[in-house]
Amino acid sequence: MKLSRRSLIGLAVVGGLLSSTVLASAETIKIGTIATLEGAFAVLGKEGMRGVDMALKKWGNKAGGKDLVIIRSSSDTSPDSAIRAVKKLVEQDGVDIVVGPLSGSEGLAIKEYAKTKPGVTFINGLSAAQDTTLRDPAPNFFRFTGDGAQWMAGLGEYVYKVKGYRNIVTIGEDYSFPYTMALGFLNDFCNLGGKVANRFWVPIGNKDYSTIVASIPDDIDAIWVGLGGADAVNFLSQYEQAGGDKPLIGGTITVDQSVLGSKGRRKSYVVGTPSAGPIADSWDNPVWQAWKADYKAQFPDGFPTPSLFAHGYFISMSAALTALDKVKGDLSDGHAKYRAALTNLVLDTPTGKVSLDENRQGITDIFLTEVTEAKDGTLYNKVIKIIPQVNQVMNGDRAKFLALGRVGRNVPACK
């Protein structure tokens, strides 16, 4: 069933019962959730809400001894839509906690809004722009998932040393999150001597890639792709149909199940694509395998394995609920005890432990992967290597990392 933005805003869940108007009480806690349920990333937002629902089911729709009121709101990847959504949740619905958003520039906007609402606690959904937390963070904004640069840990070194790539082009959507991913990948690749022949940036929702496909030089070794959702499917399909044969290097969202599970493309083209990120479909860890099974049982119409977005929102909502349990639902004194619990939380997740740094930013394990075809024809990401506990400065010198500058179209310069 496809829900419109209008029908999603104001949808509430209390102890498993639906209601359009739910009044908070001393025995309830209101949590607002924001995900992209419109536009090119709508499939990603739907997966994010699946992650929310998995956490709520695990907790039985209660945390800290109180019933939960869940109010769901939709955005469309634009900062304006995210601000509209969060203002409604905070200023009209009166939520205590916000979990979201999904897209990078949305997170930057909500970070700034959070500074004006010190009485509300904000927990990032999966938005992964770097400066949501790295520079000028909000004291009431927490991110238990990594940013896009962290997700690329180890990939630049791998493609340079193992794949032998020296000269590439990049393509990504023209906003903060793909810039962040590109920085994480290129920082290692360029420091080793790699070169970038061209960087192509496109608007979210771009449908025609013919000009870019025609502009890709013949003498490159590979294409780094930092597109997600329908954008990734459109580019990969059009490049393959045009006879393109250069190997791919996958941004985290480009080899996510939301893309690999799509229909209508020749699968042989993406097999062998290296990537990196916070999940790996084939990981044999029993906790991950059990969580995968729970996802399939709860969402039989979902992807072959859980996507990055279901995983991220599950972690974010789990952090919110775990901390509520630790303080027995006490949100008094401006959420002081609750925020202390979040700050000091070491969260057990389906993909390892997560803790926070001084900016309330997640430190997580990262998986170096390669796209592989299963016996049943489905595509999955096979684990090559696990890079443990990657922090926001890629486990390097903080001052040197900050000196790279704010993420942007040409950062790092890769001279």
Features:
about 425 residues; alpha/beta; Rossmann fold; eight-stranded mixed β-sheet; globular; disordered N terminus
Short description:
This protein is an alpha/beta fold and 415 residues long.
The number of helical segments is 14
* CATH architecture descriptor of the largest domain: 3-Layer(aba) Sandwich
- Radius of gyration (CA) equals 20 Å
Q: Please tell me what the overall shape is.
A: globular
What's the number of structural domains? 2
Please report the total strand number as a whole number.
17
Distance separating the two termini: 50 Å
Strand percentage = 15-25%
Biggest β-sheet: count, sense, barrel?
A: 8 strands, mixed
Structural class by SSE content: alpha/beta
* CATH class category of the largest domain: Alpha Beta
What name goes with the CATH superfamily of the largest domain? Response regulator
Mean pLDDT: 93
CATH fold-level assignment of the largest domain: Rossmann fold
Low-confidence stretches: 1-24
- The proportion of residues forming helix, as a percent range, comes to 25-40%
